[in-house]
Amino acid sequence: MFPDLTRDDVFRIETRRLWLRWPRARDAAAIVRLAGEQAVAEMTARIPHPIEPLGTDSFVIEARRANAEGESLTMALALRSAPTALIGIVSIHADPDASGPHLGYWLGVPHWGAGLMSEAAETLVNAYFAYAGGTELTSAAITSNAASRRVLEKCGFVRQGSARQSFPARGGERDVDLFRLTRAGWSATRSDG
Protein backbone atom coordinates (compact mmCIF):
# COMPACT_ATOMS: atom_id res chain seq x y z
CA MET A 1 0.00 0.00 0.00
CA PHE A 2 2.81 2.45 0.84
CA PRO A 3 5.90 3.09 -1.31
CA ASP A 4 9.55 2.48 -0.44
CA LEU A 5 9.90 6.14 0.55
CA THR A 6 7.90 5.48 3.75
CA ARG A 7 9.41 2.07 4.60
CA ASP A 8 12.50 3.26 6.43
CA ASP A 9 12.39 4.41 10.04
CA VAL A 10 14.19 7.64 9.15
CA PHE A 11 11.08 8.68 7.19
CA ARG A 12 9.30 11.65 8.72
CA ILE A 13 6.99 14.43 7.67
CA GLU A 14 7.27 17.91 9.10
CA THR A 15 4.35 20.32 9.34
CA ARG A 16 4.19 23.83 10.69
CA ARG A 17 3.95 22.55 14.29
CA LEU A 18 4.51 18.79 14.18
CA TRP A 19 6.84 15.98 13.28
CA LEU A 20 5.22 12.75 12.11
CA ARG A 21 7.75 9.95 12.56
CA TRP A 22 7.80 6.21 13.09
CA PRO A 23 6.96 5.12 16.64
CA ARG A 24 9.94 3.97 18.71
CA ALA A 25 10.41 1.73 21.74
CA ARG A 26 11.04 4.79 23.91
CA ASP A 27 7.54 6.06 23.01
CA ALA A 28 5.91 3.23 24.98
CA ALA A 29 5.73 5.13 28.29
CA ALA A 30 4.07 8.13 26.62
CA ILE A 31 1.58 5.83 24.87
CA VAL A 32 0.68 4.19 28.18
CA ARG A 33 0.27 7.57 29.87
CA LEU A 34 -1.57 9.46 27.09
CA ALA A 35 -3.55 6.82 25.17
CA GLY A 36 -4.32 4.99 28.40
CA GLU A 37 -6.12 7.99 29.82
CA GLN A 38 -9.81 7.13 29.98
CA ALA A 39 -10.96 10.17 27.97
CA VAL A 40 -8.74 9.05 25.06
CA ALA A 41 -9.18 5.28 25.29
CA GLU A 42 -12.98 5.37 25.51
CA MET A 43 -13.18 7.03 22.08
CA THR A 44 -11.24 4.19 20.42
CA ALA A 45 -12.15 0.65 19.46
CA ARG A 46 -8.88 -1.01 20.42
CA ILE A 47 -7.09 0.94 23.15
CA PRO A 48 -7.82 -0.62 26.54
CA HIS A 49 -8.11 1.34 29.76
CA PRO A 50 -5.80 0.96 31.55
CA ILE A 51 -3.16 0.00 28.99
CA GLU A 52 -0.81 -2.87 29.71
CA PRO A 53 2.80 -1.74 29.07
CA LEU A 54 3.58 -5.07 27.36
CA GLY A 55 0.70 -4.48 24.95
CA THR A 56 2.19 -1.10 24.10
CA ASP A 57 5.55 -2.68 23.33
CA SER A 58 3.76 -5.12 21.00
CA PHE A 59 1.93 -2.23 19.34
CA VAL A 60 5.20 -0.42 18.60
CA ILE A 61 6.86 -3.57 17.24
CA GLU A 62 3.85 -4.39 15.02
CA ALA A 63 3.54 -0.78 13.78
CA ARG A 64 7.21 -0.75 12.80
CA ARG A 65 6.91 -4.12 11.04
CA ALA A 66 3.82 -3.03 9.08
CA ASN A 67 5.48 0.29 8.17
CA ALA A 68 8.61 -1.53 6.94
CA GLU A 69 6.54 -3.86 4.78
CA GLY A 70 4.38 -1.05 3.38
CA GLU A 71 1.18 -2.61 4.76
CA SER A 72 0.26 0.51 6.72
CA LEU A 73 1.75 3.75 7.90
CA THR A 74 1.59 4.45 11.62
CA MET A 75 3.19 7.71 12.64
CA ALA A 76 3.98 9.06 16.08
CA LEU A 77 3.13 12.73 16.53
CA ALA A 78 5.57 15.05 18.25
CA LEU A 79 5.74 18.80 18.54
CA ARG A 80 8.55 20.25 16.42
CA SER A 81 9.83 21.90 19.59
CA ALA A 82 10.11 18.45 21.26
CA PRO A 83 10.54 15.87 18.45
CA THR A 84 11.28 12.93 20.74
CA ALA A 85 8.18 13.38 22.94
CA LEU A 86 5.18 11.50 21.51
CA ILE A 87 1.82 13.26 21.92
CA GLY A 88 -0.38 11.03 19.72
CA ILE A 89 -0.63 8.58 16.83
CA VAL A 90 -2.10 8.82 13.34
CA SER A 91 -2.25 5.84 10.98
CA ILE A 92 -3.61 4.48 7.75
CA HIS A 93 -4.08 0.73 7.68
CA ALA A 94 -5.94 -1.88 5.68
CA ASP A 95 -9.50 -2.50 6.82
CA PRO A 96 -11.03 -5.72 5.48
CA ASP A 97 -14.50 -4.55 6.58
CA ALA A 98 -14.41 -1.31 4.58
CA SER A 99 -14.14 -0.32 0.94
CA GLY A 100 -10.74 1.27 1.48
CA PRO A 101 -7.91 1.69 3.96
CA HIS A 102 -8.84 3.26 7.30
CA LEU A 103 -7.56 6.47 8.90
CA GLY A 104 -7.28 6.23 12.68
CA TYR A 105 -5.82 8.55 15.30
CA TRP A 106 -5.66 9.63 18.91
CA LEU A 107 -4.14 12.61 20.68
CA GLY A 108 -3.18 13.07 24.33
CA VAL A 109 -5.61 15.22 26.34
CA PRO A 110 -3.06 17.98 27.11
CA HIS A 111 -2.95 18.72 23.35
CA TRP A 112 -6.69 18.77 22.62
CA GLY A 113 -8.31 21.86 21.15
CA ALA A 114 -5.28 23.30 19.34
CA GLY A 115 -5.96 21.83 15.89
CA LEU A 116 -2.95 19.50 16.08
CA MET A 117 -4.85 16.37 15.10
CA SER A 118 -6.41 18.10 12.09
CA GLU A 119 -2.91 19.15 11.02
CA ALA A 120 -1.54 15.63 11.48
CA ALA A 121 -4.45 13.80 9.86
CA GLU A 122 -4.50 16.11 6.85
CA THR A 123 -0.76 15.60 6.41
CA LEU A 124 -1.03 11.80 6.45
CA VAL A 125 -4.05 11.86 4.14
CA ASN A 126 -2.08 14.03 1.70
CA ALA A 127 0.86 11.61 1.85
CA TYR A 128 -1.45 8.67 1.20
CA PHE A 129 -3.00 10.16 -1.92
CA ALA A 130 0.17 11.84 -3.21
CA TYR A 131 2.79 9.14 -2.55
CA ALA A 132 0.88 5.88 -2.19
CA GLY A 133 -1.47 6.45 -5.12
CA GLY A 134 -4.50 5.72 -2.95
CA THR A 135 -7.99 5.87 -4.41
CA GLU A 136 -10.03 6.22 -1.22
CA LEU A 137 -9.88 6.26 2.56
CA THR A 138 -12.46 5.41 5.21
CA SER A 139 -12.76 6.42 8.83
CA ALA A 140 -15.28 6.44 11.65
CA ALA A 141 -15.98 8.46 14.76
CA ILE A 142 -18.13 7.61 17.76
CA THR A 143 -21.31 9.64 17.27
CA SER A 144 -20.72 11.53 20.53
CA ASN A 145 -17.18 12.54 19.48
CA ALA A 146 -17.81 15.86 17.72
CA ALA A 147 -14.09 16.77 17.76
CA SER A 148 -13.17 13.64 15.79
CA ARG A 149 -15.91 14.32 13.26
CA ARG A 150 -14.55 17.87 12.79
CA VAL A 151 -11.05 16.48 12.13
CA LEU A 152 -12.41 14.23 9.40
CA GLU A 153 -14.52 16.98 7.84
CA LYS A 154 -11.52 19.36 7.79
CA CYS A 155 -9.62 16.68 5.85
CA GLY A 156 -12.42 16.50 3.28
CA PHE A 157 -14.08 13.28 4.46
CA VAL A 158 -17.81 13.02 3.77
CA ARG A 159 -20.19 11.35 6.20
CA GLN A 160 -21.71 8.19 4.69
CA GLY A 161 -24.19 7.39 7.46
CA SER A 162 -24.15 5.69 10.84
CA ALA A 163 -23.67 2.11 11.98
CA ARG A 164 -22.92 -0.06 14.98
CA GLN A 165 -19.29 -1.20 15.05
CA SER A 166 -17.39 -3.59 17.24
CA PHE A 167 -15.26 -1.92 19.91
CA PRO A 168 -13.30 -4.86 21.38
CA ALA A 169 -11.59 -2.74 24.05
CA ARG A 170 -14.99 -1.39 25.16
CA GLY A 171 -16.55 -4.86 25.38
CA GLY A 172 -19.21 -4.44 22.71
CA GLU A 173 -20.51 -2.27 19.92
CA ARG A 174 -20.81 1.50 19.66
CA ASP A 175 -22.72 3.85 17.38
CA VAL A 176 -20.36 5.49 14.89
CA ASP A 177 -20.57 7.92 12.02
CA LEU A 178 -18.91 6.47 8.90
CA PHE A 179 -16.76 8.66 6.67
CA ARG A 180 -15.18 8.30 3.23
CA LEU A 181 -12.74 10.36 1.19
CA THR A 182 -12.10 9.59 -2.48
CA ARG A 183 -9.14 10.73 -4.54
CA ALA A 184 -11.48 13.05 -6.45
CA GLY A 185 -12.76 14.53 -3.18
CA TRP A 186 -9.19 14.96 -1.93
CA SER A 187 -8.17 16.66 -5.20
CA ALA A 188 -11.15 19.01 -4.95
CA THR A 189 -10.23 20.07 -1.40
CA ARG A 190 -6.62 20.66 -2.49
CA SER A 191 -7.66 22.90 -5.38
CA ASP A 192 -10.08 24.85 -3.15
CA GLY A 193 -7.31 25.77 -0.71
From TrEMBL:
Domain of life: Bacteria
Pfam families for the chain: Acetyltransf_3
Keyword NAD annotated: no
Similarity-based family: Belongs to the acetyltransferase family. RimJ subfamily.
Organism: Methylobacterium thuringiense
Alphabetized InterPro entries for the sequence: Acyl_CoA_acyltransferase (IPR016181), GNAT_dom (IPR000182), N-acetyltransferase (IPR051531)
Gene3D superfamilies: 3.40.630.30
Residue stretches making up the N-acetyltransferase domain: 17-158
UniProt-recorded name of the protein: N-acetyltransferase domain-containing protein
UniProt keyword Transmembrane present: no
Keywords noted in UniProt: Acyltransferase, Transferase
